[in-house]
Fold each of these.
Amino acid sequence: MDLYEAIKKRYSCRSYSSKPIEKEKLDRILEAARLAPSAKNLRDWRFVIVTDEKRRKEVAAAANEQMFIATAPAIIVGCSNCDSIMRCGQKIAPIDLAIAMEHIALAATAEGLTTCWIGSFYPEKIRKVLDIPEKIEIIELMPIGYPADKETHRPIENVEKIVCYEKWQF
């Protein structure tokens, strides 16, 4: 699958098959994250891969009781140990982690898997379930697996509504 096809095909899956993810596929997907760019080339992201069924249910409960998350054979918990700020005033950690997680989402799509970005969770509960140290920021959760639902896409704005050239013209 080429990049543009993966971009068009990616969607937020909320129902996963119990079919396990092949280790080779997961390794390629995690390699895509490792290759993501990062500010100052810090690469301070860290990923906890949760595959144990009981622990996946605990993570889902800590994610605002979104129990569909636990139906995925794996949950990727994106973390960072970076507290640096870019000159523009933005924190590095969430931006770098978002880039790496989107590499994961697109690589998963190319491998025939689906994902879902999860930002609704209680970090302190996730921290307890996964023994994540206090100094580590928990930024994102992403269930990953084979879909049990049909691919769905929400309407997306035309490019003309989100892009202008040379100066602000909205």
Amino acid sequence: MAQYFELHPENPQARLLKQAVALLEKGGILAVPTDSSYALVCHLDDKTAVDQLRRIRGVDDKHQLTLLCRDLSELASYARVDNRQFRLLKNATPGPFTFILEASKEVPRRVSHPSRKTIGLRVPDHKVLQELLTLHGSALLATTLIPPGDTHPLNDAEEIRERFEKVIAGVLDAGACPQEPTTVVDLTGDAPEIIRQGRGDAALLGL
């Protein structure tokens, strides 16, 4: 049975977030709000949790998962970033962007793209999620909470609990999210390439 945490969107209760972090450290999967939509998250280094995350989402190991980072310094631990890329990242973080970058050796091979050795990374602009990441102390692995067979992410925390309470450890309810996907930008080529236009304004990247 999933635990349900009702959190203030701007001043989330630390004691509740600490309980949520404890669930992550036990291998649990959480549904969390972001600056784009609700997402499923788990501990990066827990293979069992990662496999369960994929099963819930209905995706195989070829589906690129995303690392949620607190800031650019943490992001740089998981990806190879040159000066040009760093300037672009600085202009657009935190915010609703996902950046495809070359994965560093810190990223377990099972969560990077199997053929390209790339990883999607982002620094979300959401108070509750930022506080959760800070208390957790490291990046979290994430995927948008789109139920198998659906095309749009769920946006109501109570509905998320009803549909997934038997397979996830907890739901963080901080109200509705914008329900618009991130803008996905591939930075692995000679020039930035927008893979998906979403909520993030490409003008911030000069594109």
Amino acid sequence: MNLRILRKKIKSIANVKKITRAMQLVSAVKMKKAQQEAIETIPYRTFLEKIILKSMSQVDKAHSPLLSSKTNNNKYLYIVISSNKGLCGFFNFSIFKFINNQIDLKNSEFIVLGKKAANFISKIGGKIIADFSTINFNNAVSPIFTESLKKFLIGDYEMVFLIYNHFISATKFETIKTQLLPTTISYIKKVETKEKINEYLIEPDPKTVIDEVLKNLIEEKIRGAIIESQAAEHSARMLAMKNATDNAGEIIYNLTLLRNKVRQEKITNELLDMVSAKISVESN
């Protein structure tokens, strides 16, 4: 192999390594920020569920349309959260695999947040009723909540679910499906709490208060899912870029050995030519 070509390849891969290393560091910083935001949303969401739990003794499901479905048409709405960009390992593939294996497209419609999910669902023939991929993810909470709530209340869907990558740690995430409507209390169960559930004095009336608290809870669940998904995305990208950086270093090492070998062979051949020429001159 040509020595000049080898040098160009080594230089090119070294530049790629610098880029992947920088992307790895940037993703690590973004992941820590998103992780902190995800942690900070949990206490408020938990507090809302405590209020609902302690008020349930005075509230019947009939008090709020958010607590029960108006239809039994077996039609479901899925809010799918993916990423707009690639280079994040199997982050998006995990979402695609889950949808492909777990979701019946005939009885399902989708609200998507993320271009990758929008492209995949369109390719497999899923029906997308709203796509919020072009706006800032944090600004998409309110329109997603409004659209899904409106469709649920008019009886278009029996249930509404969230599908997203739940952030577990810096090296691990899991694709999960969470029920959004009808609302369920997932963080706190009555049998798990040792607190005495006192009756609240609810004013002006249980229906008005519970409706507003439930709406806040649903909106916070959407916001929490988006933040967790972003943390998982940055985590996956950080790991992908780390692997790319390590692979680039290994390739550079192997190419450097090959370059040294080629250069040594070239020097050896030149010496042989010189010796052969000297012997030829002396024999003549």
Amino acid sequence: MNNTHAHVGLATDGDADRIGAVDANGNFIDPHHIMALSLQYLFEKRGWRGAVVKTVSTTLMLNRLAKKYNLPLYETSVGFDGIADLMMTRDVLIGGEESGGISIKGHIPEGDGVLMGLLLLEVMAHAHAPLHELIMNLQQEVGPTYYKRDDIKLDKPVPKSEMVERLANSAPNTINNEHVVSIQTTDGIKFIMADDSWLLIRPSGTEPVLRVYVESEDEAAVKNILAVGRDMAGKSTTVT
């Protein structure tokens, strides 16, 4: 990016239903931030209203923005099907998932990487600000947030219900010295801690892989919680 003096780089996957970006400094901007920036812009600048729909593996920045704007928020299982169902039956402002599938009100109930790339350019143009500055401001408002996902290869697929039951039966009271305040089983098992950190463990629906997701306000905590998640995952199934 520095060599080309570009302000932003945008990319989609092969069928263009997912979006990713890099800023002018070459830093990767993940779909969590793209979706949060889009929600912030659509609400504050365009004046749009409606529900926020996100998968269980998507950032809490969206929860915080929805609470700030007094918007309904729904969490679905991973994959766009659950988001699409709500977009077709309810007044949804924005819906998306951590893998980059995002769509907005008035558009098709399916991820559209091209549309979201254009919207991100509009956000930057309206603000007259570089992407890294917008991200910094977003983090100051609804962060800080750090996120990581780890994929663990398995000998064979693991039944989700059995894995969830084993982990629920052996659920710890604390993770990384933070009290576990709730456990969700919308898709896999998600542990939410008192400091808003969370750990999600779920089998992939398409391959013999166990996915471990973590988000926290502290970067070091992400590494620690991820290690806990990997250990819990290893005890719940056979890991290669």
